[in-house]
């Protein structure tokens, strides 16, 4: 049985005043039946603007981090997780107001497994009405943790009506940019289904050492819903507009069904290490490699 050897977490803090926190955020994973936690990971300080108002974060949790609570205990599989297995908590009383949280993992068989995703915290998730959730160890301010909405891997035939782009700009001189980036997706039969320019947001867009978490509903006036099985190796291109340049450190692209709390997520691009060079306004951009097609046998509900 394939197990998860690396986990990733992307999160976005609300842009409202006082939504950010200096308290540590924790990711917790457990099984049903009163067993010890599979994972209890405190996110460390990084070069990113960690949990600052309006800012995104993308964190890697390595195999050593996963094993740490239980020493040499074996890694765990996605099949051990249920609808309330994945929680996000806080270790202090400096309140935090998240807007979106996404957790996914890499398996030992190479597959990318979406695990949990909550993008609208005013909607019911796993039986709880979150309604602008606030996390704090001070009971007068909020709760100490909340359960994320469990998601599963969508099949290649899944109709994709929304994109999620997560990225981190390299921590190098001149890696960041004030230019905008443009994502184009063309199907195997030549249909342009996505032509999206990422505009300015409250985040530190494409700044050195900073993360970005972009959610893109596909507008039927401009874009066309599509499926992974309609794409080929040349389908997804990314370029920078203007005369500037930009160097990512890592980049991930996923697709989901329509707006609201999703159930299915389809990995499209997964680049934990960016090896495609600098994006420059002098070039035509780069083709992003597709995540390999996934066998329908692993798309079952947990």
What would the keywords be for this entry?
five-stranded mixed β-sheet, Lipoxygenase-1, mainly beta, 1 helix, single chain, about 300 residues
Which regions are unreliable across 5 or more consecutive residues at pLDDT < 50? 123-130, 296-302
The computed structural class is mainly beta
CATH top level class name of the largest domain: Mainly Beta
General form: globular
Mean pLDDT: 89
What percent of residues are in strands? 35-45%
Sheet with the most strands, sense and barrel status: 5 strands, mixed
Q: What is the H/E string?
A: EEEEHEEEEEEEEEEEEEEEEE
Q: Estimate percent helicity.
A: under 10%
**Assigned CATH architecture of the largest domain:** Sandwich
- Tally of helical runs: 1
Kindly state the number of beta strands. 21
CATH topology of the largest domain: Lipoxygenase-1
Please list the strands of the largest sheet in the order they lie side by side. Answer: 11-19-18-12-15
How many distinct folded domains? 2
Radius of gyration: 19 Å
| CATH homologous superfamily placement of the largest domain | PLAT/LH2 domain
State the distance separating the first and last CA atoms.
15 Å
